[in-house]
Amino acid sequence: MFFIPGQLIALLTFPGVIVHETAHLFFCKMFNLKVYDVCFYRFGNPAGYVIHENSENFTAQFFVSMGPFFVNTVLCMIFCTAAFLPVWELKVVDPLAYFFYWLGLSIGMHSFPSTVDLTHIWKAAPGLAKKGNVLAIVSLPLAAILVVLNYGRVIWADLGYGIVVGVLGPIALFRAMARL
Amino acid sequence: MRAMSQITCGTCSREIATSEGYELNGKVYCEPCASTALQVAKQSGQPANIVRLVDKTICARCKAYSGSLLEVGNLRLCEPCAALVQDWPYPQWLKLSLAGLCVLLVFALLHGRKYFAAGKNLYRGEQLIEKGQYPEALKYLKETLRIAPESDKGALLTAKAALLSGDIDTAANALQGHNSGRFEDATKPEFLEVKNMWDRATSSMDKLKQAATLEETDGHEVQAATLVHEAASLYPQMPQLQLIVDHFDEGAAFSRKDYDNFLRLAEKDWNTSPGGATAAGLASALACKFAVTNDPAFRKRSEEMLTKARELSASDKETTAVLSEYEGRIRYRLDSRQVITKTEYDRKFHKGKDAAK
Fold first, then answer.
1. What is the CATH number of domain B113-184?
2. Nearest-neighbour CA in chain A from B202: distance (Å)
């Protein structure tokens, strides 16, 4: 295992940080939450942030906290899909494909919500889950997995996730397409 | 210039900005005095809840003085900050970047159409191989290699489909045309599987060549047939395999004078693959049976098969040439009721012809 400072990783994968924060902002705006400050990228820790008001609405909490996970995952898959075949399967030297693969993996690497974001969900979900809130029920295992993965960042779980989404996603997609 | 409200420290009477002051038990302090007052309060058992003062004339976000602050949630904000907080805009650079990215993505998708087609063919070919439909798979995989000749997976799957279809030439092109026969990882199971198939196929071809050479000389028919059986077991996917095996088995049966077996095999070949060559083979076997039994039915049928062989080979010059030589031997067999080998026949007739020339 080798250590690379988080700030350097964030610099190398800065599009992912920007997309992550943009997703937070997007869902804040969608649920009309007040946003006090936004940093899309900086050379520091954290590399980006969105400071917003807390909401009593669990749906808003869920999407504001987990939004980047879904948005980054989907975008990672889209960009990697555009580049997957020439890069991985066909071994075609195409700079644009490599650019898109870097972009896709960078975005995928920053999918995990921060521990602070997950804490909000983790605190609110159990009570609501007992009352039968479907989103709260779904969010509990998801948040649990993401908490574990978040801690796994020290062993490159974030990069691993990006690769899984950026490689297995397109493989599944193209295999399904080939059956059509 | 920033204007702000001020307070006077309850201990040292120094004037400071409100936002820099603290409140403890109803009195206001500057920071150094607040620290001392806190210690004193703790020692004397008084409440020690110290609170930082908020300047209600300063925007909580931009820290600028404003005569009219708006309450937004728990915060007092100036008008511009309040508007910003209520509806934070996406920065212009972000919008432009997103638009640029979308354009690039569309371009990449358009540019990558051929790769999508190649990839789809690759996966389709792979699925057809899994289903055992090798010739169909080969059609798709050849298309993939046309666009991506560097693809290890494409080359290996093409070679596999070709070898399992009995198409050694296409397999050779796929393997040797790929980076001069070099692959990224020669320890991968996919590579080893194809290499094993290729080695068996080429070894099989070598054995077939040896068998063909042996067949040309009398007395080696059994040895040649054994080699062909070995070749067939090494590479059962070889096209027309059963015909080749039967052809050599017929030769072996002929050399053992086992004309019943010769006839059985020749009949089988004719029934499964009617053509000039199989018709001539059957005519030959029937002629042998006539020679040893003198049964005119064999002779009659042999002549019918010779006629059929000529008809069926009319459009094929190569088969016609082979047949004209073969027919002479069969006719000699029918006329003389003597079964002689090709070498004996050539010695008896062609040598004389050559000498006559």
1. 1.25.40.10
2. 27
